[in-house]
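Lab meeting tomorrow. Please check the following:
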Amino acid sequence: MSISRALSALLFCALSASGFVPSASSRGGSSSSLSQPGHESSAARRTSLLRTAAVDDAVEEASTASPSKSLTLFSPCKINLFLRILRKRPDGFHDLASLFQAVGFGDTLRLSLLAEGSEGDEFSCNMEGVPTDSSNLVLRALELMRRRTGREDAFFDADLVKRVPAQAGLGGGSANAATAMWGANELLGRPATLDELIEWSGELGSDITFFLSRGTAYCTGRGEIMTPIDPPLPSGAKLSIVKPDLGLSTPKVFGALDYDGLSSEDPEALRDVFLNEGVVKTDDKYYINDLEQPAFDCLPELKALKDELLGVDGFDHVMMSGSGTSIFCIGEPADKEGFMKEFDGRVGVSVFNAEFINREEGCWFENPEN
C-alpha cells in the first residue's frame, strides 16, 4: 500500500478525534455486516460527503510525509454478552455462537520496526509467567504478518504491558495478537487490507478475528467466523469485571460440559434481542452462557461469587464471560466506594471498572482511561 493510503487512515483518526469525521454510511461498509435499527438522514449524508472531501484534500497535502516507525497501541479485552455452544465437531472443537463486545480495560503494546539487517524480533513483557519465546501470540502474529505479506526481512521490537489476567475469559492474549497484526501492518505501510487481516487471523486462534471488528460482532464457528455489527453497540456503557485469582483452563470447562443441559435458544434471535433492546433493557433470561454451569461445577466458589454480585444494588445484569473465571456486571453499583471496599479489597479478588468501547473505521481502539 502507498504512503498516502496509510496517511489517509492516520488523518481520518486525527479528524475523528476532533469530531470532524465522515459517517459510516458515506465511507461504505462490508456487505456482510449487520446493521442496528435506524437510518441516517439525507442532511447527515450530505455533511458526510463534505467531510470526506475535506479528508481527501488533507491527505493529498500530506502525502509526502514519512510513515511512523513506532506505535503505542491499546489492546482491549472482550466480554461475551451471550455464548451458545451448539455442538462438538469431529475435529474436537466446538461450534459456538456469541455476541462479543470490546471493553475499555486492557493491555498496551509498544511496537517498532527494527533496523534493516536485524535477524529476529525482540519481545518483552512486564507480567510474570507470560511466555516470551516463539509460543507467545504477539510473536506468532508478527511471524504470520511476515509470511503473509512477503516481508521476511521485517523484524519488530515489541514491549507488552499486561493488565488483563490469564484464564479470565476476556480474550487478553487474542487481543494482543490482533493488536500486533494491526500495528505491524501500519508500520509496514499497510500491505494488507482489513479483510486480509481478518482472514489470516484465524490461523492463530479462535477469538483473534473479533478484535479486528469495530467493537461488536456476532461470531460463529470456533469463534473465528466474524460478522461485524455496524454500527457497533454504543460506547460508554459501564460495567465492572470481577476476577477471582482462581483460574480455569478452557479445555477443563469444556470437559465438564453437559450437552443435555445446553440452552435451546436460537442464537440469531438472541443477537437480535440485544441489538434491538440494548444491553440494559435486554431481559436477564437472554444473558446465556452455556459454559457458566460447567465452570461452576469445576469451581463452586465462582458461583458463590456470582450470587454475591447479583445482590449488589445498581447492577442490571451479572454473568460469567467466556470460559471464565471473570464475571462481568452491567451497570454501576449504587455505593461504588462500598462495593470496591467489599470486593476489590478482598484477598484473592480483583475488580476492574470499565466501559464498552468501539473504534472508527481505519483507526485502532483507544484507551478510554487516557
Observations:
- Strands lie at 70-88, 94-113, 122-125, 156-161, 216-220, 225-228, 238-244, 315-320, 327-331, 349-355.
